Amino acid sequence: MGANMARRLKDTGHTVSAVYDVKHELAQALATELGCGAPGTLRETAASADLVITVVTDDAAMRGIFAKEGDSLLIDATGKVFMNCATVSPAVHEEISAVCEEVGASALEACMASSITQARNGTLYLMVGGDAETFGRVESILKDLSASLRHVGGVGQAAKVKALVNMVMNINTAGLAEGLGLGAALGLDLAMLKEVFSQTGANSRVLETDGDDMIAREHDCFFSASHAAKDSGIANALAAEAGVEVPLSRATEAQYRRLIDLGLGELDKSGIAEITFPGRSA
Question: pTM surpassing 0.70?
Fold first, then answer.
């Protein structure tokens, strides 16, 4: 996602001064493509930028890049804006915003409900949480990245909305996999079944994006099963804190955890069909 966002910003006339990845060879290849730097440290990466966009995997990675000691984006960060796009827990977004304020920087969360292709085309669905003034400073850049842009409130609010988006999406994905898997077990024509689903109350966005892949066993990764498990886990933790029962979401997380246990966590989320279709799972 981060690489395609950088490409989009370059295409729309913005200066991309540097890119960074823990796998330096990936950053170097992208830097060559974009004509920018690929420093080996976080400090150097942020040094030449007023706006720093981050896309990391989880809470631990987010805390790592904003560490108070060692190599960190926080070094000499006064006046910078950090736009953090990862799906991590709301509490971590709040924590990072606080440490940024301590060094005179500002942080926004820009949660994405979109795909890699949309990142490249500038058609992301972005939900932004943070101070309204800071949002205004970077709004024009956000518009170049998105087709839909919503400022949903203070820091942490966008992460909560994103957690619920992915919670429902993952439940829908698991339900579709079970419906198509049962259809296969019953000997039904799955193309016909998919068409009927699309014309009835069984329809969903997931049917459009994942249905054919589930049937054909084509699980090239756009949003991994391991990320689905993580994101359902974030939503389930929020539910536990709120005292709300979410049995469907807990069952969905368990299904994705099972896929990870089978060594299939890096399949696309459509790979959940591998444990619902007859004869597929180990």
Answer: yes
